[in-house]
Amino acid sequence: MRTALCVILSCQLAAAYARLGNSEPVQVSMVQLLAQPSKYDKKLISVRGFLSIWREPHHGVRAILFLHPEDAKDLFSRNTINVVASQEMIREQKTFDQRYVILTGVFHAAPTASGGYVTTIREVQACTVTAEPDPPQPQSGNTWR
Fold first, then answer.
1. Ranges 1-15, 47-61, 122-136: which has the least confidence
2. Structural domains of the chain, with CATH
3. Which strand (E) or helix (H) includes residue 134?
4. In the chain, helix, strand, coil percent, each to 5?
5. Residue 57's pLDDT is what?
6. What's the whole-model pTM score?
7. Which residues contact 39 (CB under 8 A, 6 or more apart)?
């Protein structure tokens, strides 16, 4: 019985790795994921964004990756990706909440009836706090007056 269980678990693990394909994540921007979600569907990706994690009564933990902190003020922003938070992310919520992070996980793009997509990152393998991006600097000769 124990041998059969080990064989079944090994097959499931092998199938999971096969679905992921290459074990190296695709480095991608949030803009790329939001613009072409079907291109990255079911792929292991690594993306940078502004993470918000909170607890909702009756629903548990919610996590959303935003393009910018300004988007986090509007939960109905289109510049978002849902995140199924890992146990570490839940445990270390104060570390990751309201911070720029680099997330590595499997991206899912589920088509909707209206022609859009519900986007989610699942099976999070890593979540690392990163520095805020530098604000854009005007290039010489391109100043606004």
1. 1-15
2. 22-129 (2.40.50.140)
3. none
4. 30, 35, 35
5. 82
6. 0.74
7. 32
